[in-house]
Amino acid sequence: MSNRMWGGRYASGPDAIMEEINASIDFDKALWRQDIAGSRAHVAMLAKQGIVEQADADAITKGLGQVEAEIEAGSFTFSRSLEDIHMNVEARLAEIVGPAAGRLHTARSRNDQVALDMRLWVRDTVDQLDGQLRELQSIMAEKALAFAGAVMPGFTHLQSAQPTTFGHHLLAYVEMLGRDRGRLHDARRRMNECPLGAAALAGTSFPIDRHATAAALGFDRPTANSLDSVADRDFSLETLAAASICAVHLSRLAEEIVLWTTPQFGFVRLSDKFTTGSSIMPQKRNPDAAELVRGKSGRVIGALNALLIVMKGLPMTYGKDMQEDKEGLFDAMATLSLCIAAMAGMIRDMQPELKTMKKAAGVGYATATDLADWLVRTLKMPFREAHHVTGRIVGLAADRGVGLEKLELAAMQAVEPRITAAVYEVLGVERSVRSRTSYGGTAPAEVRKQAKRWLARLKRE
Ligand code: ARG
Questions:
Q1: Is 157 a catalytic residue?
Q2: 24 Cα nearest atom in ligand 1
Q3: Is 438 a residue of the active site?
Q4: Pathway it belongs to (predicted)?
Q5: How far apart are CA 359 and CA 361, in angstroms?
Q6: Tag placement on the chain: N or C end, fewer CB within 10 Å?
């Protein structure tokens, strides 16, 4: 049998392989809520404009309610021969309402319909991710406030650099997640134009009111060019790009958690709820959730790349290639959502090992910069010279196998005679972090201020 929706000129139905490659219902059924919402707004507008009779519109609206209830209840039968969600919903509507259902598709095409559904879906998902990210930020900012003074090593090149605090480190990620949310907000703002009414590509000869449907569906305005409306998926690309950057941030934090939970580092302890054991090695507490967040970021980045490649050679306007926009996007958004949830759970229960971190903070001559700064401040030495002098003192300490704070004064004075015992005051890690009071610096008082600023802001958002 030829297709009821478009098979007027067809003598036969599609080959089984044609149906297999063509059907998208197995994944685009995820769009059912958006599809029904779009149809409701469309038919209400058609009636208001006198394009369909009010009685038909009422029957269609009622029928859509029944379709919605059936899908919600799980009693709806999705059919592959009906290709996609749009035709599945409409075919069932026709069974419920009769021939009047056929009026719903007046002044509409699946091209503007799917563009609309996707925008609505991405918009909903962005809002949900934003809420999750806000929650994760709150958890991290609370932890940062509690551990603003917990000294830990700061690294560059993964080599001991300068002491910092656990709170300061967590707030670095709060900032990154804040920018991730900003990118999602930007994407949302740009995508919030309604493509419905672009029809197949050129608009329609019916006197539709695109401003009305746009407003009814919560859009800021209708899109201004019908060709662009059905041809682009940049809203998905932009969201995937923002999601990819966010996934990279989560992956870096995950990598740090993996490192921190090794017995060699021992900086933090994850709860039992977020670790797994080994079937052969009884001592193991593996940070699988963190490893999976790190691993799953690849899927999100992959989805962005896949869609960029799908889109890059398409002539205007719609091409069926664009049906390939869905699976990767859906998977990427679900993956990111799961990763945020896992990270929130891990961080909420995570216990920093304060003694271990503090001890590690002093390893590797991490207060050498404090010594150089002391020489600049106290002896008025130019920084470059102070750097050199400090380097020689570090060399002496390394030869003797001691930390700077354990190196005797005479040894330091052999390098620079003007050094006094007062220098030892700046060589401890506590003192080092407390001294870094510049705006955004690692001093616990500054970290507390920033954590409170975030917590107040997050409460308002
Ligand atoms: N399932 C299709 C998609 O996702 C819907 C649009 C189909 N339009 C068409 N003219 N065949 O892209």
A1: yes
A2: 1
A3: no
A4: Amino-acid biosynthesis; L-arginine biosynthesis; L-arginine from L-ornithine and carbamoyl phosphate: step 3/3
A5: 5
A6: N
